[in-house]
Amino acid sequence: MSYPATRMLAMLELLQAHHGLGGRDLAQRLGVDERTVRRYAARLAELGIPVAAERGRYGGYRLMPGYKLPPLMLTDDEATAVVLGLLAGRRLGLAAEATEAALAKIRRVLPATLREQAGALEETLDFTLAERAAPTPASRAVLTLAAAIRDRRRVTLRYRSWQGARTERELDGHGLVFHSGRWYVTGHDHRSGEIRTFRVDRISAVVPGTASYEIPEESDPVRQVTASLARVPYAHLVEVVLHVPLAEASRRVPPSVATLTETPDGALLRMRAESLDGMATMLAGLGFPFTVRSPRELRTAVRRLAQRLLDQTPE
């Protein structure tokens, strides 16, 4: 740190990272004396950066609460972590427009060398996870829900169902879950009197209230969301016994696809399906012996699939 400007910026970075630091501590970290630290603090104040100096035995320097530092100061590792996080978020379908805007801002403030390295990372990095394009909820809705859940405050939602019906609901939120490119909120819905899951991109308004509540200890938002997705009202309710232990079935069938229950004959799979032909293909792909309980039409679909496979493998 041979240049005063560099040391002054380093002091600003230290104050950004800590609630407060003593003059002696700052001097040791910067490699200067305490008088120089006082001069740096005064210079920062002249530049409009509110560095507060507190005298006395336990005094020191700190940034005034609520101050947002311009520019954002990141180490190489921190900048790389931010870029990686934004690239992963973009692939997941997480707030696509905001992600692109944040990436553009980060690129503009990075030093030239690091900007080139980050650009190379962006150009060459790929993911095994397929890119997802899903509706993005309003950031304000996500943030308002998060604050209400943290503070245990009931909210009023204006919600549009998958059928287009619009309702107003009071919700005691238990948690937010990001799954397969979509945001969900789950909690106690006072309209139905049940634990329900709502897609956040279908929420047009969130109004925090004053009523408080407690989240049950047994609440598991991830499990609730995945279980509710398995109960989406598709055309056919399917029940199939997989003749394998429940633990083995659970490794192949995620909770967002179906519910699994242990039975004397194996694991009972319950789910809803729009296409019985597709359901037959899924069962065949599991590689487990199974017995169809319902619907009867699924047995026909399984036989039809078996015949197609036989027809494609002539002797």
SSE pattern, N- to C-terminal: HHHEEHHHHEEEEEHEHEEHEH
Average of per-residue pLDDT values:
85
Largest sheet: 5 strands, antiparallel
Number of helices: 11
Explain what you see.
The protein has 4 domains: 4-63, Winged helix-like DNA-binding domain superfamily/Winged helix DNA-binding domain (Arc Repressor Mutant, subunit A, Orthogonal Bundle); 76-124, no CATH class; 136-231, SH3 type barrels, CATH 2.30.30.100; 236-312, Alpha-Beta Plaits, CATH 3.30.70. It has helices at 4-17, 23-30, 34-46, 76-92, 96-109, 112-124, 139-151, 221-230, 246-252, 276-286, 296-311; strands at 51-54, 60-63, 153-160, 166-179, 182-189, 194-199, 203-212, 236-242, 259-263, 266-273, 290-294. The strands form 3 sheets. Strands 6-5-4-3-7 form a 5-stranded antiparallel β-sheet. Strands 9-10-8-11 form a 4-stranded antiparallel β-sheet. A two-stranded antiparallel ribbon has the order 1-2. The protein contains 11 helices and 11 strands. The model has no long low-confidence stretch (mean pLDDT 85). GO terms for molecular function: DNA-binding transcription factor activity.
Question: Which tags fit this structure?
Answer:
single chain; 315 residues; alpha+beta; SH3 type barrels; 4 domains; 11 strands; elongated
Question: What's a quick, concise take on this entry?
Answer:
The protein has 315 residues and is α+β, with helices and mostly antiparallel strands. The chain is built from 11 helices and 11 strands.
What order do the helices and strands come in, and which of them pair?
Layout: H1 4-17, H2 23-30, H3 34-46, E1 51-54, E2 60-63, H4 76-92, H5 96-109, H6 112-124, H7 139-151, E3 153-160, E4 166-179, E5 182-189, E6 194-199, E7 203-212, H8 221-230, E8 236-242, H9 246-252, E9 259-263, E10 266-273, H10 276-286, E11 290-294, H11 296-311
Antiparallel strand pairs: 1-2, 3-4, 3-7, 4-5, 5-6, 8-10, 8-11, 9-10
Helix pairs in contact: 1-3, 2-3, 4-5, 4-6, 10-11
